[in-house]
From TrEMBL:
Keywords: Disulfide bond, Glycoprotein, Golgi apparatus, Membrane, Signal, Signal-anchor, Transferase, Transmembrane, Transmembrane helix. It is a single-pass type II membrane protein. This is Sulfotransferase. GO terms for cellular component: Golgi membrane. It is found in: Golgi apparatus membrane. Disulfide bonds join C223-C234. The chain holds residues 52 to 327 of 327 of the full protein.
């Protein structure tokens, strides 16, 4: 409980920490940070700034829901709390654990064209290796099995992009209406309509508007305008990395590989994405 003094009188503002009402469960490199930060523009949304990794990390999970709640931001009781931990989407035991916390929690998944997402995933890992002065194989050699010349589905950057495979596990626990898919490519090129769809999904009053976002041509991305003084803020430089160039034949093989999974995703979710 905190006290806020105004004009001599005392207004008591009851602040609480609440378990999340909505969770951005993934997908890694789909634009999860941008989505979280943009939803935070909404006046009745509060977000956990760090990835909490409660459900995918056994040690954290063992600390219990009171610990999880203590990681959440302070808010008013009627505010909506959101956290994001992209590892949730692909970690097998997570759907059941989240269901055990709250069977009616709302789930957000931001997806991106699967080949681009895989390359982005590779680019992030590569950067980490290079920073430690380590060498790392090429994307092509990881994504394609050289003995069979087929796509290597054991490579995590590939398997994470098989969205249906993971989504099906979630659908064993949660009805489709409780899982909202955000188009990560559209969140890059024209974020507002995507954000307005999320507002509707979360039953929030429509508050995020054109003046909250502006295109920063230096960054090549939308940046945020928020607060009383409408201060501006872009995402960290690690968001929007340069991708390595990948051999066109490998890109083509991967696109063909993902095609049937993409079709299945459109069928399951009722949402079509403009992926080749
Ligand atoms: P790239 O680095 O491949 O361009 P995540 O937060 O899940 O790791 O996703 C990172 C991706 O978010 C970036 O991938 C970037 O393309 C995307 N993104 C979407 N909107 C963005 C924005 N407004 N600013 C920076 N990156 C954004």
């Amino acid at each position: 409980v905190s006290h806020e003094e105004r004009g001599g009188g005392v207004n008591r503002v009851h602040l609480v920490q609440q378990l999340p009402h909505a969770i951005i469960i993934g997908v890694r490199k789909g634009g999860t940070r941008a989505l979280l930060e943009m939803l935070d523009l909404h006046p009745t949304v509060v977000t956990a700034s760090q990835e909490v990794h409660f459900f995918d990390n056994d040690e954290n999970y063992g600390k219990g829901f009171a610990w999880y709640r203590s990681r959440m931001p302070h808010s008013l009781i009627n505010h909506v709390t959101i956290e994001k931990s992209p590892a949730y989407f692909t970690t097998e035991k997570v759907p059941e654990r989240i269901f055990g916390m709250n069977a009616s929690v709302k789930l957000l998944v931001i997806v991106r064209e699967p080949v681009t997402r895989a390359v982005s995933d590779y680019a992030q890992v590569l950067e980490g290796k290079l920073r430690k002065n380590k060498t790392y194989p090429s994307f092509e050699s990881l994504a394609i099995d050289s003995t069979t010349d087929r796509v290597n589905t054991k490579y995590k950057a590939v398997s994470t992009s098989i969205y249906t495979k993971h989504l099906e596990r979630w659908l064993h626990f949660f009805p489709a209406q409780q899982i909202h898919l955000v188009d990560g490519d559209l969140l890059i090129s024209d974020p507002l309509p995507e954000l307005q769809m999320v507002e509707r999904f979360l039953n929030l009053p429509p508050c995020i508007g054109r003046d909250h976002l502006y295109f920063n041509s230096t960054r090549g991305f939308y940046c945020l305008r928020s607060g009383q003084h409408r201060g501006t803020r872009c995402l960290a430089g690690s968001k929007g990395r340069r991708h390595p160039s990948v051999h066109p034949a490998v890109l083509h093989t991967l696109r063909l590989f993902f095609h049937p999974y993409n079709q299945k995703l459109y069928q399951i979710t009722g949402r079509t994405f403009s992926w080749q």
